[in-house]
Amino acid sequence: MAKRYDFVVIGGGLVGCMVCLSISSKNRSVCLIEKNKINKIISDDYTPLSLSINSVNFLKEKNIWDENLIKSNLIESLYIKLFNSFNTVKISTSDINLESIGQVVDKASFLSYLRNLSKKNKNIDIIDNTELDIKQLESLPKIYLPNDSEAIDFGQLIVTDGANSKIAEKLNIPYKNINYDQTSYIFNGEYDSMEKSTAQIFTDKGVFAVLPGHGNKKSIVATVHNKFIDDFKFEANTINENLLERQLLPYVKNLKNLKLIYKHPLNTVRLDNWFFKQTLFLGNSSQLLHPFGAQGFNFALDCIKKLDTQWEYLSSNDKSTEHVINNITKKRNELLNGIDLTSSLLMKNNILAAISSSFIAKTLNLSTTLKKFFIKRILNT
Ligand SMILES: Cc1cc2nc3c(=O)[nH]c(=O)nc-3n(C[C@H](O)[C@H](O)[C@H](O)COP(=O)(O)OP(=O)(O)OC[C@H]3O[C@@H](n4cnc5c(N)ncnc54)[C@H](O)[C@@H]3O)c2cc1C
Fold first, then answer.
1. Tens digit of pLDDT for each residue in 125-162?
2. Nearest CA to ligand 1 atom 38
C-alpha cells in the first residue's frame, strides 16, 4: 500500500529543510527527498548568509537558532555606497530601535544544523541519495521513487530543487530567462574593517558586499560584470587584490590571503507562477534573486513564516490560504520589480546610474521618513 504523507518536499537545501521544520511543528507529516547523501558538511570555509532581523526573529521563535553551531555574527550597521563616498547611506540600529539589523551566519554550518534538526524530527521522513525525475512525477498526486514499486501518496508537493529547477522545466511551468551578465564570487580573506558592520558597494565593475566571518576568515561577495572578470583574475593563481580592494574602499584595508570558495554565474530562470494545483515552488527553484541586498533566503523564509499557520489548509482550496498565497504573490512581484528597477538603475556604468545614485542617497539622507520606509522595505520589519 502506498505510504501517505501530508506533504512531500523535493530538495533538502536551506529552504526545503526550513519548510519541513515548519510543517512538522504543526504536527503534519512530511517526507523530504534529497538528491545527495545528507551528511554533516565539514568545512573550514565561511560562506556568509545574511539574515534580516525579521528572519532571525522567526528562527528564534521556532527554536531554530544556535549561535555557536551556525557561527553567527550580529550586525549593527549597514553602509550602502553608491559609486562614490558622497553617495553613502548608513543604516544603524538607532534608526530602527532594535538591538541589531540582522546577523550573518555560515551557510554550510546552518545547512548542517537544519538537516540535523530535520533528521531528529519524528514528523519528518528523509529519503536521501535519491533524485526525483519527471518519470517519477508523471502520476501526480503520487510519486514513485526510482527502483521502488511502492508509491508515495501526498496532499501537497513542495518543490525546492534549487536554481534553474529541472522539475519546473519538466512540468512545463512558464518562465522568464534572467541573464544579468554577471558572476558572483565569494571569498574568504583577511582584512581590516569595522566591527559589527557590513557594506554593500555599487561600482562600475559590479556589486560588492563586505561581511564578517569566523576567526581571521572574513568574507567578501563580489558580483562582477562578466566583461571585467579577466581584470580581477579571480580564478587565476594571482588574484588582482589591488583592483578588488579599490572597489571595497573605504570599508576594507590591508586585504590579503584571499581564497575563492564559491562561484555562481547569474544566468537563471524566474518562474511566472510559483503555485498551482498541488505544487508550490519555493526558494531558488522559483527565482534566483540577485545577491545584492541579500534577499533570496530571507524572502523564502518570509513566505514560510506566512505559511507557517496555513499549512493544513494548503491543499484544501481554503479561502484563507488563497488569501495568503495572493499576499505572498503580491510581495514576490513587488520584490522582483524592486530588484529589476535597482538593477536597471544602479548596475550600469552610465549617466543614469550616476544621477539615480546621487538622487537616492541624498533623498534618504535628508528625509528620516523616507529612510525609515526604505529600511522597512529592505529589512522587511
Ligand atoms: C552569491 C550568493 C549570495 C547569497 N547571499 C544571500 C544572503 O546573504 N542572504 C539571503 O537571504 N540569500 C542569499 N542568497 C540566496 C540563498 O543562497 C538562496 O536563497 C538559498 O540558498 C536557496 O536555497 P534553496 O534551498 O532554494 O536551493 P539549494 O540550496 O540549491 O537547494 C536545492 C536542493 O535540492 C536538491 N535537489 C535538486 N534537484 C533534486 C531532485 N530532482 N530531487 C531531489 N533533490 C534535488 C539539491 O541537491 C539541493 O540540496 C545568495 C545567493 C547567491 C548566489
1. 999 999 988 777 777 778 888 877 788 999 889 999 99
2. 161
Instruction: Answer whether 50 contacts ligand 1 (Cβ < 6 A).
Output: yes
CA distance to 56, 80, 132, 201, per residue, from 370 (Å): 24, 15, 47, 21
B/e letters for 71-81, b = 16+ CB within 10 Å, e = fewer, are: bbbbbbbbbbb
Tell me, using a 6 A CB cutoff, whether residue 52 lines ligand 1: no
For Cα atoms 129, 135, 140, give the angle at the middle one, nearest 5 degrees: 100
Where in the chain are the domains? 3-58+108-177+269-342
Instruction: Compute how many other C-beta atoms are within 10 angstroms of the C-beta atom of residue 196.
Output: 14
The tally of CA atoms less than 13 A away on the side-chain side of residue 188 is 15
Gap from CA of 109 to ligand 1 centroid (Å): 14
pTM of the model: 0.94
Within 8 A by CB and 6+ apart from 89, the residues are: 79, 80, 82, 360, 361, 364, 365, 371
Q: Tens digit of pLDDT for each residue in 221-248? A: 999 999 999 999 999 889 999 999 999 9
Ligand 1 centroid–CA 36 distance in Å is: 14
Pick the residue whose CA is nearest to atom 15 on ligand 1: 296
- Rounded-to-10 torsion of CA 269, 272, 274, 275: -150
Nearest CA to ligand 1 atom 30: 162
The residue whose C-alpha atom lies closest to atom 11 belonging to ligand 1 is: 297
Backbone angles phi, psi at 210, to 5 degrees: -105, 120
Q: What's the CA gap between 156 and 298, in Å, rounded?
A: 23
Q: What are phi and psi of 52, to 5 degrees?
A: -70, 165
Which fold does the domain 3-58+108-177+269-342 belong to in CATH? Answer: FAD/NAD(P)-binding domain (3.50.50)
Cβ proximity of 18 and 113 under 8 Å: no
